[in-house]
Design goal:
The chain is mainly alpha-helical and 147 residues long. The protein has one domain.
């Protein structure tokens, strides 16, 4: 291995470690922001003395975000279905909260969007079960020590 190749390998390792830390710090910031937002929502619900369906869906959105972050920290991967679930719940919440002001066409298009997202999850789950990609080699974790 020549000097240029060693330098490139060292830069790749350094870049990988840097990006790993940027990801982790970003996820910690998302976790903190979600926790703060959840806390504000719980205080608002407690203050109003009532819990509506929109409130419950909002709480499920927070739980899905926490679940997605936990999945990443556990496996290093975020399954694509988590953001799709979040989008589905967010659209359902939007429909419930603004139903009175929506036109029939708007409500139908949002409902159709949820259906498309649900079908996307179904296709992904079927594809993963039928055409598993376990043969894709895992990327080795970045080295953090200075060899």
């Amino acid at each position: 291995m020549n000097t240029h190749q060693k330098h490139c390998l060292k830069m790749d390792q350094w870049s990988s470690v840097l990006l790993m830390w940027v990801e982790r710090i970003g996820l910690l910031l998302v976790t903190a922001a979600t926790f703060v937002s959840l806390s504000h929502e719980l205080v608002r619900i407690w203050g109003s003395g009532t819990v509506g369906l929109g409130d419950l869906l909002q709480l499920f959105l927070y739980l899905e975000v926490f679940s997605m972050i936990n999945s990443y920290f556990g496996s290093g991967k975020i399954p694509m279905r988590y953001p799709i679930y979040i989008a589905m719940v967010a659209l359902a919440r939007y429909i419930l909260l603004d139903m009175k002001e929506m036109t029939d066409q708007h409500m139908l298009s949002l409902s159709f969007s949820i259906l498309i997202l649900a079908l996307a999850v179904l296709v992904m789950r079927f594809g993963h079960a039928k055409y598993s990609y376990d043969d894709v080699p895992e990327q080795p974790p970045a080295k953090t020590n200075h060899d």
